[in-house]
Design brief:
alpha/beta; globular; 474 residues; Lyase, Ornithine Decarboxylase, Chain A, domain 1; 20 strands; 2 domains; TIM Barrel; disordered N terminus; binds pyridoxal-5'-phosphate
Amino acid sequence: MLSTQPAGIENSGRQYIPNANKGNNGDAAKRSPNQELLPLTAGINSHDHLEIGGCDVTKLVQQFGSPLYILDEESLRSACRQYREAFQNYYPGEFQVLYASKAWSCLGVCAIAHSEGLGIDVVSGGELYTALQAGVKPEVIYFHGNNKSVEELSLAIESGCTIVVDNWYELKSLVNIVEKLRATSLQQTRIMLRLTPGIDCHTHDYIRTGHLDSKFGFDPDQIEAVFAFIGQQTNLTCVGLHAHIGSQIFERQPHQDLAEVMVQWMEKAKSYGLPVTELNLGGGLGIRYTESDDPPSIDEWVQALCQAVKAACESQNLPLPKLLCEPGRSLIGTACVTAYTIGSSKTVPEIRTYVAIDGGMSDNPRPITYQSLYRAVVANRMSAPVSETVTVAGKHCESGDILIKEASLPQTEPGDILVVMGTGAYNYSMASNYNRLPRPAAVVVANQEAKLLLRRETYQDLIRQDCLPNSLLS
Ligand code: PLP
């Protein structure tokens, strides 16, 4: 067992459950979901069980199976509203908040975000199809990606969404495709240009995208040639510029610097005659995965962004652009938890105790990919005192399949329900069938009711795409 006591064990020795301890959820609307560990509606019921959206998590597992993604509708809706209200308060011009659906793309999540007035950012034909099927209007869909295929670009053009062009290859393909499609559609294709602004931020290398050595976007030394080229195209309308500098960012300065740089590029684009009126500064606001994470609130982040854009426009004497941002993690990350069932355990004397759960790197690949940290609670004994530090291991045939290296938990037993917090973003969307594990179900909870968002995969689902040529049968 590890001797150090990691942050997260409260002096009382209780499981660390900051919002549940607040008891009453009456002030949920004011709390910024990205600053919480648990969803806004989390509480403890009279059975000493964790409750989310008025639903007993232990009962949800009995009803829908384990592991289970549990999405708190109120947390997601509240985050959407907080983004919109902050723009209303701090930005006198037009704005549009987009949900970066790469964080979690499925029909239900897109539909909730859209019903709160958000548009959707997509990065593949699959995400675009999902957003359209969820009823999202193409006018508020923005299509990113550094290597979109001809099929994807054609689908995007035909659907009427805005294409965020990433590179020369894409730009030239687009010109050809639009030319061919012109016979069937007289519509102009709206594009934006993704620029690499050369701005650094402190986050994991894999999720940093705005520095110069990035696979995304046009480099500063290419931009003027791109502006000149687009100025000559008759079927493409370049409505604005885009940049995204990275994810899980706690500082405000990088986005303020970004605003300044991008406003200068807007002015340059106008000097080439491009009708640029939109500026998209990407996503990136971080969330609280552990007690030591201290991100700004949604309101603070939006305020900083708006002030920087207003100041830059004033100093360049430019009209305010329509301002867009496209958060993913800070909208949905802390709205969801994953409930697992504890099974086997193993103590390596003097070193550590492994406690195994019935999922792992296939439903949450972030720890093995980014060394991400998570916190967990035993949901069926919420007031049990924390008594040990264990390593929560997944069930995959992979030594690195560790979800939490140092989890402060009460004594656990097989059958206990372990809830890992902050699993709304980049969990289901990055999930796999590694070791042929069926992907878990997901439910959305609100007002004591749980509804299925994603049905649990079955063994039949696992072999649905398999082909077994007759010649291989013995
Ligand atoms: N926009 C783009 C282009 C991205 O690549 C990402 C994620 O990395 C996002 C938006 C969303 O970022 P986040 O989830 O950090 O808000």
